[in-house]
Amino acid sequence: MKAWEDEKRFLAGVEEATRFFAGEANVQHAANRIAQLLDENGIPYAITGGLALNAYGYSRVTVDVDVLLTQEGLHAFRAIHPELTENGVPIDVVLAGEYPGDGLPKPVAFPDPAMAAVRGERIALLPLPRTIELKLASGMTAPHRLKDLADVIEIIRILRLPAGLAEELDPYVREKYQELWVAAQAEERE
Q1: How far is residue 43's CA from residue 112's CA, in Å, rounded to a whole number?
Q2: What spatial distance separates the first Cα and last Cα of the chain, rounded to whole Å?
């Protein structure tokens, strides 16, 4: 019975990944709907997390929509969309001023989306250097967030980011970026 359940989960995962990379997964529809609602209501936001990484060229599946709001933006959003789900997809809200990773004060905090977000055709994102900065601070301070450091290695590798990008980052995370940049240069062995 267990082998059948494992196979069923495997096939469901492959099917979901196929929909995701075709741009047709529930998480992508949810992100588009959330962005539309926020835009229509004039609520500043930025899509972050795995969906933002995909927008920057790192193709990886994610199952939730991470959205950066201010406290006021969250209250306004909850007034028009009381549930923190959309089409069965969890909406993970991070608030401007909060700290990534362990949540403790540090030099890197989530920025105000009205000041930091860059607008695309349909959605607003954090700029890539800010996304990298937040992922580094998160992975550096929370042992359960090591995926954030792995994401940084992959985005460095895939986009061939320069070592000099460290100068655009907060000094708090520069050394970790440089360390991961070196790690990203290693050739994969089969």
Answers
A1: 12
A2: 33
Give the chain's domains with CATH numbers. Answer: 2-185 (3.30.460)
* Residue pLDDT, tens place only, 123-163: 999 999 999 999 999 999 999 999 999 999 999 999 999 99
- The CB density around residue 167, as the number of other CB atoms within 10 Å, is 11
**22 pLDDT more than 90:** no
- Which residue's entry shows tokens 């360390």? 179
Strands (E), the chain: 46-48, 65-69, 85-86, 89-95, 118-119, 124-125
Give the list of residues 6+ apart from residue 125 with CB closer than 8 angstroms, or none: 46, 47, 48, 52, 55, 56, 117, 118, 131
**Cβ pair 67, 46 in contact under 8 A:** yes
Question: What phi and psi, each to the nearest 5 degrees, are found at residue 92?
Answer: -100, 105
And the tokens for 118? 């860059």
d(CA 70, CA 76): 10
CA dist 115 and 46 (Å) reads 10
